[in-house]
Amino acid sequence: MPSVITVTADDLALPLEEQVVRTSTALDMHGHLIALAPAEADDPARRRMHTVRSALEGDRIAIVPLTLPPLARTLLGEQLRQLSGTDLGPGVLAGAARLLSYYLHSGALLASVSKLDRVPVSVGSHVRSLVPGRHFAVLAHPEPYLGEADAEHVPPGPGYATQLAVAGNGLDPGWVAGPLAGGWQTQALREVPLPSDSARWWGTSRLVEFTAYIADVGMLYQLVTSVRRDTCTWCGLEVIGDQCLFCATRVNERGTPAKHAARPPDRAVETPRRPQLEPHKR
After folding, report:
1. What is the domain range of residue 75?
2. To 5 degrees, how large is the angle CA 64–CA 70–CA 72?
3. Is the predicted pLDDT of residue 183 greater than 70, yes or no?
4. Is the pLDDT of residue 101 over 50?
5. DSSP assignment of 194-221, as one string?
6. Which segments show compositional bias classed as Basic and acidic residues (predicted)?
């Protein structure tokens, strides 16, 4: 049975009882649920998902907290949905969420950084953002970057083949579609709807959010299957990384037959080791 992949956000919240019923129905149909949630522990969508998981008292829901911007999180969910149609099991898919996030380069073109708190912002940048007409190039993942958007300077990008997803509101996307896409040597440009929580995440409603991502499901599958797999000693799922994201058992807690040890408490999500990609040929 394929796993269900969902991306949580505040605007997607249903009445709690309805959400519990729908989640229970999805589990009955598909077996497992992987929820990609914001990294903040007090995020309402993440707290709500934990409440649903507790209400259903099951180890078939994996909640994966991610520091990714909204567009990148949405695209990661899309990648996992593609992989769910392959022979990868739910434990491997859940671990793949953290693994594949390494290969997302995500940022935004902003008209102001005065309310930006996701990357370090200097006093000078704050002052310059008060001047009309200034545009800022910001990279939040995998490494923070902030500079003025111009044709001569673009943030560091991926060294391998990617496509570029672009979602905007209130700003001309020309710098993203031109200098950035050219500097990153993207293979294709894809326009997508702006996620509803992007304005809150970036601190402004005038922005163009962008993410470079691997679109080839064959390459994604190769990345995931190149990582060592283990069997969870509690729930028996095949997993990658140091922890089963469904039951929170650490892989190195060996020597106890599955389902016979006392269930471990929830722990921080561990990340699988990242395999190397061949550099993009220029």
Report:
1. 4-103+217-239
2. 75
3. yes
4. yes
5. PPTTHHHHHT-SSEEEEEEE---HHHHH
6. 263-282
* Bridge partners, 37 (sequence order): 65
Instruction: Please tell me whether residues 66 and 147 are part of one structural domain.
Output: no
Does 246 fall in a domain?
A: no
Nearest to 227 by CA among 36, 75, 83: 83
Report in angstroms the alpha-carbon separations of 87 from 77, 112, 149, 185: 17, 45, 43, 32
Asked if the structure places residue 274 within a domain, the reply is no
Of 27, 77, 79, whose CA–CA distance to 220 is shortest?
A: 79
Beta strands in the chain (DSSP E): 4-7, 33-38, 61-66, 105-110, 136-141, 145-148, 163-169, 189-191, 207-213, 230-231, 238-239
Reported as half-sphere exposure (CB side, CA atoms, 13 A), residue 111 has a value of: 14
β-pair type (33-38, 4-7): parallel
- 4 to each of 21, 27, 78, 254, how far by Cα in Å? 15, 8, 11, 29
In three-state secondary structure terms, 98 is: helix
Question: Is 224 or 280 the better-scoring residue by pLDDT?
Answer: 224
Q: How far apart are CA 202 and CA 116, in angstroms?
A: 6
Average the pLDDT over 219-241 and give the result: 95
At residue 109, φ and ψ (nearest 5 deg) are -95, 120
What is the number of domains present in the chain?
2
Please report the pLDDT score of residue 252 as a whole number.
72
Q: 113 and 180, same structural domain?
A: yes
Cis peptide bond N-terminal to 142, omega within 30 = yes
